[in-house]
Amino acid sequence: MNRLQNLLKRFELHSLGKWIFLASLIGVVAGLGAIAFDVLGQIVVRYSVTQFAGYQPLDAAGEHQRFEYQSDFFSPWMIVAVMAVGGLLSGILVYAVAPEAEGAGTDAAIDAFHNKRGKIRARIPFIKTLASAITLGTGGSGGREGPIALIGAGFGSWLATRLKLSNRERRVLLAAGMGAGIGAIFRAPLAGAVFAGEILYSDADLEADVLVPAATASVIAYSVYVQSLPVESRFIPLFGADLEHTFVSPLQLPAYVVLAVVLFVIGAVYVKTLFATQAMFKRLPIIPHVRPAIGAALAGTFGVGLYLGFDRDPNLLGSLGTGYGVLQIALTTADQIGIACVVMVAMAKILTTALTIGSGGSGGVFGPSMVIGGCTGAAVGLAFQQAWPDLFTEPEAFAVVGMAGFFSGIARAPISTIIMVRALTGDYGLLLPTMLVSTLTFMFSQHFRLYHNQPPTRMESMAHRGDFIVDVLEGLSVGDLYQKNRNLILIPEGMTLDTIVHRLASTHQDYFPVVDENQKMVGIFSDDDVRAYLYDDALWKLAVARDIMVDNFLYLTPQDDLNTALRRFTSHNLDELPVLDPDRPGVFLGMLRRKETIAAYNHRLMELKQTGED
């Protein structure tokens, strides 16, 4: 590590080469972490629900099944038992070792970026990986993006801390790691890079500083991860390479507007159900270690009950696990499962995810969002096909658009989600309706969001509090605020201390510029400087202003901005600074007070806030 620090010292502080080098290291670790998480999750599936319940969850077309196993039995209620045990193990692991690893990992990374100076405890990514593999592998309803995003973010934070980088640099590497994890696990490097910058804020804002490091880390992580896959599936999208839907007519746009409204309503239900369930579990008078077991058991009971209650339709078990298998059907042959089935899967997925994640189970919320949005879109598409079969020939197109539109609204990340869904499906023929629906859901969903730790913009972020002060102060100049030299007392450099003492007694002025015979400022002293001589009156007739003044003083000009002024105030803990004429050296113009600088900043801040509200 010391050698690495010495190597980095050869680079400039903001060198692009340094960022690419560090981001590449993060990308390698995030890619390996994605492989480890994928393998571990599939091991848990193989030796839990498959071994004891005979259940093999359906996968997406582009997923690689690492452990083939053919079961000759199927015990639905055993799924519930396995899920309960998985929830218990996950809960004990998380709450005994790293309570921060509960729930969705992406929100924890966002919180660390804004409120914890980019710091994530080194143990959290490891605990999150193991706990999430157990939760998802035993049938818990959740996504993979949260754990793998936290793995990359955690390594980025750890690396920056070990290299003794600044808080800002640690935050950049944290975000780069988050993007790398997303880019690897979903095989979407561009989406991962944009996601890292966009997901940090709930309004239309972007953390531009992280884009290049995140892009580098995401590309490396993706390249590492795909090497673990067979050649035939290495570069195909997660949901296969056969999705080629088209946008056939502008007459379809009103239907997509309807889809946006439906997605907005379902999104509100999803978010409110998730957080209401979370609040309910926190109120339970039991130790938190067992809450995930209760949530998993309830989710399993509901999912299995739905399956048994509707003629043992295997598609309804998509409400458990990742649900990618039933989403794959909705994207390709939605008419085979019908409106009722996709609606039930979407609604059931909301409840099972709320029970799994809201109880403290470890997993992501992006994956379930895709299933909910895709199934909702498929239901809307099938309804329009039944009403106007000649115009709406591909209801599956609504499923693709629904995936993007749903998450864009609740996660407040429209651009990265559009790119993500395109990469997941390989379907680029629906860009126009996807942009329309994602924009509308983003606009409709302003008052609720999936990630509570997102501040609206950089202005509200603790990570940029100092940057915003600088931006505001740089827009104000010293010339607008300083006190002109009309009532200020100037002290000739030869004035005796006795005269100075008597003059101070009749004024409230705290700082006194000292001028020479040409009225050029040569120094300054404060009333505190004079007090040092008050108890030695023998010096009053001997000492003059030149003896007590500071001749190497800081000063400002009217053209300086208030950010410059504030830096000079704080560097020497001064309350006032003299203002001199830049064109006539030494000519004193007036004084600027620190409190007036702060007052100007507060006034300007209120103006900007009122402008934003208007």
* Tally of discrete structural domains: 2
Architecture of the largest domain, according to CATH?
Orthogonal Bundle
Helix content: 55-70%
**In the CATH hierarchy, what is the superfamily of the largest domain?**
Clc chloride channel
The CATH topology annotation of the largest domain reads as: Clc chloride channel
Give the N-to-C terminal Cα separation: 52 Å
Count of helix runs: 24
What labels describe this entry?
CBS_dom_sf; CBS-domain; three-stranded mixed β-sheet; 24 helices; transmembrane; 4% strand; single chain; CBS_dom; transmembrane helix
Layout of strands and helices, then pairs:
Elements: H1 2-8, H2 16-46, H3 49-53, H4 76-97, H5 105-115, H6 123-137, H7 145-162, H8 167-185, H9 189-198, H10 211-226, H11 253-283, H12 291-309, H13 324-332, H14 338-358, H15 366-387, H16 395-411, H17 414-425, H18 431-444, H19 465-474, E1 483-484, E2 491-492, H20 497-504, E3 511-515, E4 521-526, H21 527-531, H22 545-548, H23 562-571, E5 576-580, E6 588-593, H24 594-613
Parallel strand pairs: 2-3
Antiparallel strand pairs: 1-6, 3-4, 5-6
If you had to describe this structure to a student in words, what would you say it looks like?
With 614 residues, this protein is mostly helical. It has 2 domains: 1-462, Clc chloride channel (Orthogonal Bundle), CATH 1.10.3080.10; 468-612, CBS-domain, CATH 3.10.580. The protein is built from 24 helices and 6 strands. It has helices spanning 2-8, 16-46, 49-53, 76-97, 105-115, 123-137, 145-162, 167-185, 189-198, 211-226, 253-283, 291-309, 324-332, 338-358, 366-387, 395-411, 414-425, 431-444, 465-474, 497-504, 527-531, 545-548, 562-571, 594-613, and strands at residues 483-484, 491-492, 511-515, 521-526, 576-580, 588-593. The strands form 2 sheets. Strands 1-6-5 form a 3-stranded antiparallel sheet. A 3-stranded mixed sheet has the order 2-3-4. Helix 2 crosses helix 7 (145-162). The protein is elongated. The model has no long low-confidence stretch (mean pLDDT 86). Residues 484-542, 549-608 form the CBS domain. InterPro entries: CBS_dom, CBS_dom_sf, Cl-channel_core, ClC, ClC-type_chloride_channel. GO terms for molecular function: chloride channel activity. One of its GO terms (cellular component) is chloride channel complex. It comes from Stieleria maiorica.
